[in-house]
Amino acid sequence: MLASCGYLDAGLMSGLVAAWKELFKLFDPDVVIGQHAPTALLALRGSSVRKIGLGHGFDLPPRISPFPAWRKSMDKEPTLELVEAAILKSVNQAMQTLRLQKLERLSDIFDLDDRFLCTFPELDWYRAKTNGGRKYFGAIFSSPQDAVKLGMPTGSGNAVLAYVQAASEGFVPMLEAIRQSNLRGLVISPDLNPRKARTLTTDRIVVTNRLVDLPHALSQADLVISNGGHGVVAAALLAGKPQLLNPVYVEQSLTALRCEKGRFSQSIKAPTDIEHWKRAINQLLREKAFMTEAMKVAEKYRSYDVARQVSRIVDVIDQRQPKRALH
Q1: 51: helix, strand or coil
Q2: Model confidence over 110-120: pLDDT tens digits?
Q3: pLDDT of residue 172
Q4: What confidence tens digit (pLDDT) does each residue in 150-204 have?
Q5: What pLDDT does residue 83 have?
Q6: Among 199, 213, 220, 261, which residue has the fewest nearby CB atoms (within 10 Å)?
Q7: What is the spatial distance between Cα 268 and Cα 273, in angstroms, rounded to a whole number?
Q8: Beta bridge partners of residue 114, listed in sequence order
Q9: 159-303 has which fold?
């Protein structure tokens, strides 16, 4: 990923890091909080500015070398180490040009004063790569104040909550699978045209692009379908719901693998196949083991208060921040 963002070009990296240096010189911060932000962190190497990383796992990798592979097939590929060595050489050339502290290994980019890993171990892809040596602060997600409380359509049968992108592969087959399975459904799709949402809505399936109160909707669901976005997956996990995931991006795929390992989730392997959707949905609703495992995790975090997480992070940062002397 770094290679595709210009990290193999020492001249380009010099310019990018220099731009961040000028920005920090202009604002003169005491602390910088970054979600991933590797180039900004490079510009702060050797400075007294306190560096804090905040992320949900994928964007806050462990300080190990080489960085863990995203696919098992890549674990023993020498290409990974070669690419990482090339990136490290390019970055250090840029650091030398700008008279900044060099890196001994590429993961030194994430040499942070504090880390707020805002996820749960059940969702962290890197956990297995670090022998459990990661400290977790807990997931952060919220329902906006203007979120509407939408309930499931009335009637008999299991209820499915889907939070998916309409542009994602499998959206239409998923809707048809829910319909053919005679299930009740609430489908939230933020990128869907409102007029299209109305045409897709039936007496058994409500389709909307509105901001929906997620905890309220989750309380009425027997199964949750999503693309594997961290916030939705974490919310469903805390609600004790089995999940069916159809990932779009790399980080969603890694989250889906972790969920499968936890045995409270399955992933869609053929997103354009209606029959495959129907079988997967039916399996998760029929086999109670998925619900049992999901409820175990929910019970584990029963006292977790997501509403207080942001204020907790702010309090910790403030408590640990040295006070600047007044002149």
Answers
A1: strand
A2: 999 999 999 99
A3: 96
A4: 989 999 999 999 999 999 999 999 999 999 999 999 999 999 999 999 999 999 9
A5: 87
A6: 199
A7: 10
A8: 52
A9: Rossmann fold (3.40.50)
